[in-house]
Specification:
By secondary structure, the protein is an alpha+beta fold. It has 13 helices and ten strands. Helix 10 packs across helix 12. The structure holds NADPH dihydro-nicotinamide-adenine-dinucleotide phosphate.
Length: about 450
């Protein structure tokens, strides 16, 4: 801030005559429709809200830096991992799952841990959680699960009975239910929890060799959780406790960080794994698939504008970069489509051009807008090919009749036209051209029309 007095303008940058008094017809008369300053201010207010996220409506986001600490170039050609010490800008959004916008951010629920890496090869979005597993493993049940977590369709409040009704009917949820109901189901804000890519992904190296991978982010602030009594009390007096805790920590230069690890599994190991290694309700045991350190994630910059940078932040598991790819995990397969789909609805089809979502380390060059409109001929010299095939498949008698018919008609035309057309026939077949030329020669070309005499 310079301290200089700034001129107040409308959205087009034009100075506004008054931000407090509307334009009226006289001192006590009605307002004028031409008061564009009032109209714009009112219209903006009426329409400035956007649909909230279907899930994860409550959250906060910050920028940071990912730094490679350990070499994994033998596993992936992704440029962000290309050398130890390499730094990549990130944007991370933390969230709860079920509550609607305006709800508390410290109740018992899973937490979203979504990371956007602004890499030189475009954005890589690792849209994870604070748990390595999930309630369901088939996307067909996802919508039912989320409905069970939201408000009752008639009474409109969240109900424990809806959750347990779903969970008791879906045994694959057991692992995640125990996790959620345990100590880590109510983390003390966003800084004191781990993050997981949760799904199995794949890494691809420069020799096009693939290995399956899981991503882990372990908090360097240590795990801390609220007791049931603590969060229930706190959410009444400080419902945005987690958002405030993270903002203030960064504002004070107390930057939180996480250590990134991977677990890897070869194709051979995947084939012999005791269960489906792409099942999102199960982990890969650490003893068999040890954590390998890769890097450090540090969060160090608060956004300037919550709406522009956090509310409009859009992550998609579809955003992967060369060297990182998906797996047959069914939940992941569905998320590849559904995230971008919901962003198009919530933010519009140009959501990916909003600064927080656009690439920061490379340029966009999509084919979605074509070049200049013009009348451009196809210009492909292929008109004789199929005509030749056609002519060559005709029987001698059919060819005779064809030449006869052409000559009967073409023979009535001016010589210049005859020559031009015979030239085209020659591109199809020499014999056809010769025969038409001979046949038309027998027919007298029409004489030019006499020109009217000049007056
Ligand atoms: P390990 O004994 O090697 O590791 C146990 C894991 O559980 C650690 O990552 C630990 O995290 C985490 N943990 C400890 N307490 C809790 C808790 N109250 N709630 C959630 N997680 C906790 O075990 P395995 O790899 O053989 O896995 C055993 C179980 O541990 C799994 O069924 C899973 O539920 C849980 N787990 C496993 C993970 C994996 O990727 N293998 C990851 C996270 C949990 P920390 O080191 O941060 O304390």
């Amino acid at each position: 801030m310079t301290g200089e007095k700034q001129t107040l303008t409308n959205a087009a940058g034009v100075p506004v005559p008054s931000n407090e008094v509307s334009k009226s017809a006289g001192k006590r008369g009605p307002l004028l429709l031409e008061d564009y300053t009032l109209l714009e201010k009112m219209a903006h207010f009426n329409r400035e809200r956007i649909p909230e996220r279907v899930v994860r409506a409550v959250g906060s986001g910050v920028y940071g830096t990912f730094t490679v600490t350990d070499e994994i170039t033998h596993l992936t050609k992704a440029k962000l991992f290309s050398e130890v010490g390499k730094e990549t800008e990130v944007f991370v959004r933390f969230s709860t799952v079920a509550k609607s916008k305006g709800g508390s951010d410290i109740y018992r629920d899973l937490r979203g841990f979504a990371i956007k890496f602004y890499t030189e090869d475009g954005n890589w979005d690792l849209v994870g959680n604070n748990t390595p597993i999930f309630f369901v493993r088939d996307p067909m049940k996802f919508m039912d699960f989320i409905r069970s977590q939201k408000e009752h369709p008639q009474q409109h409040w969240r109900q424990d009975e809806m959750w347990w009704d779903f969970w008791s009917l879906v045994p694959e949820s057991l692992h995640q239910v125990l996790w959620l109901m345990g100590d880590r189901g109510a983390p003390m804000g966003w800084r004191h929890m781990n993050g997981y890519g949760s799904h199995t992904f794949s890494l691809i190296n420069a020799d096009s060799e693939r290995i399956w991978v899981k991503f882990h982010f372990k908090t360097n602030q240590s795990i801390k959780n609220f007791t049931e009594e603590q969060w229930m009390h706190l959410q009444g007096i400080e419902p945005r406790w987690a958002t405030k805790d993270l903002y203030n920590a960064i504002d004070q230069g107390n930057y939180p960080s996480w250590t990134m690890y991977i677990q890897t599994m070869t194709d051979e190991q995947a084939k012999n794994f005791p269960w489906n290694p792409f099942d999102l309700t199960k982990v890969w045991p650490h003893d068999d698939y040890p954590l390998q350190r890769v890097g450090r994630l540090e969060l160090n910059r608060n956004p300037e504008n919550y709406f522009a940078e956090v509310e409009q932040a859009a992550f998609s598991p579809g955003n992967v970069v060369p060297g990182i790819s998906w797996s047959p995990d069914r939940m992941l397969q569905a998320r590849i489509m559904s995230y971008a789909d919901t962003h198009r609805h919530r933010l519009g089809v140009n959501y990916d051009t909003i600064p927080v979502n656009a690439p920061h380390a490379t340029e966009v060059n999509t084919p979605y807008r074509e070049g200049m409109a013009d009348r451009i001929e196809l210009n492909e010299p292929d008109y004789a090919d199929q005509a030749r095939l056609f002519y060559q498949m005709l029987s001698p008698e059919e060819k005779d009749r064809l030449v006869h018919n052409i000559a009967g008609s073409l023979g009535k035309c001016m010589e210049a036209i005859q020559k031009r057309q015979i030239g085209l026939f020659r591109e199809v077949d020499e014999e056809l051209a010769d025969r038409v030329a001979a046949a038309t020669g027998a027919v007298q070309p029409p004489q030019p029309e006499p020109q009217p005499a000049a007056v």
